């Protein structure tokens, strides 16, 4: 299916954000609010501003559908959902606990959204679907959304199942949009002080091809995915334009992946996680680089 070029709605949205207390979620709330959208926080951690959110356990379907349908003194209905809540990485809990928590919460959010009439869903997928930690070489560089998902952990397996579920839900439901954003390693400004140390040992960051996403640019991607006028399912790699390294990208690729085809001429510090699709269709345009802070 050919996806439309970038076309965005301008009407402010009433948006629920799950996982809003996280590194990315808090930036998403700030960004959406700054751009005139009404945000309702749904999280197990109470928001700093209690007037905009409520405590919800998304592994409980009753709570989830009730929260999306309406909450006294918070909202009487929503236009969209941004689902970020999850155990955010492999190994933070047992594999079974990771699967149960993340898969159940996502099914509940998707299913509850449909039950209450929400047709605009953006969720956090993951760069891990590209084959991270790349113990098996990628098929080509830079990597993008065009080859089949390659989950290598229970965490990434769940992300793959979430995307698969989204594909079927949009097939069942005319007018539904579900966008999966495959976020790279999310960074705060204070994280950038450590970046120059990576040059001494490139292998310490080759697990995700030396990529990252500034949390503020991740929030921009969420906003643009929400306002993108599209029906159906789509996935996007969300990474910054540059790598975490001072060494050239071509040098890093040649040393670590000598047998992998490189499909384009690489910029000096160009990210090997391609954000070209997000730029083309969402109008995504990263504005923040670690090089501006170190």
From TrEMBL:
<keyword id="KW-0560">Oxidoreductase</keyword>
<dbReference type="InterPro" id="IPR036291">
    <property type="entry name" value="NAD(P)-bd_dom_sf"/>
</dbReference>
<dbReference type="Pfam" id="PF01370">
    <property type="entry name" value="Epimerase"/>
</dbReference>
<protein>
    <submittedName>
        <fullName>UDP-glucose 4-epimerase</fullName>
    </submittedName>
</protein>
<dbReference type="InterPro" id="IPR001509">
    <property type="entry name" value="Epimerase_deHydtase"/>
</dbReference>
<feature type="domain" description="NAD-dependent epimerase/dehydratase">
    <location>
        <begin position="15"/>
        <end position="187"/>
    </location>
</feature>
<keyword id="KW-0520">NAD</keyword>
<comment type="similarity">
    <text>Belongs to the NAD(P)-dependent epimerase/dehydratase family.</text>
</comment>
């Amino acid at each position: 299916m050919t996806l439309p070029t970038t076309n965005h709605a301008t009407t402010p949205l009433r948006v629920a954000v799950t996982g809003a207390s996280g590194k990315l979620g808090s930036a998403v709330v700030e960004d959406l609010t700054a751009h005139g959208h009404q945000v309702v926080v749904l999280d197990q951690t109470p928001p700093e501003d209690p007037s905009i959110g409520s405590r919800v356990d998304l592994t409980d379907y009753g709570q989830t559908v009730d929260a999306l349908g309406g909450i006294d003194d918070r909202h009487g209905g929503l236009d969209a959902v941004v689902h970020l809540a999850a155990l955010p990485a492999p190994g933070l809990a047992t594999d079974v606990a990771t699967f149960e928590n993340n898969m159940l919460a996502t099914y509940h959010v998707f299913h509850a959204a449909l039950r209450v009439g929400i047709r605009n869903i953006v969720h956090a997928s993951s760069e891990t679907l590209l084959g991270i930690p790349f113990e098996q070489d990628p098929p080509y560089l830079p990597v993008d959304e065009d080859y089949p998902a390659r989950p290598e952990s229970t965490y990434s397996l769940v992300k793959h199942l979430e995307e698969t579920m989204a594909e079927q839900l949009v097939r069942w439901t005319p007018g539904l949009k579900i966008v999966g954003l495959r976020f790279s390693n999310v960074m705060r400004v204070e994280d950038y002080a450590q970046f120059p140390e990576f040059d001494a040992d490139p292998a310490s960051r080759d697990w995700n091809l030396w990529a990252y996403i500034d949390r503020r640019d991740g929030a921009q991607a969420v906003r643009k995915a929400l306002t993108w006028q599209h029906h159906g399912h789509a996935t996007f790699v969300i990474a910054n334009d540059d790598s975490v390294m001072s060494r050239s990208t071509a040098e890093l690729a040649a040393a670590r992946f000598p047998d992998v085809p490189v499909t384009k001429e690489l910029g000096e510090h160009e990210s090997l996680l391609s954000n070209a699709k997000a730029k083309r269709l969402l109008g995504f345009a990263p504005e923040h680089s670690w090089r501006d802070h170190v």
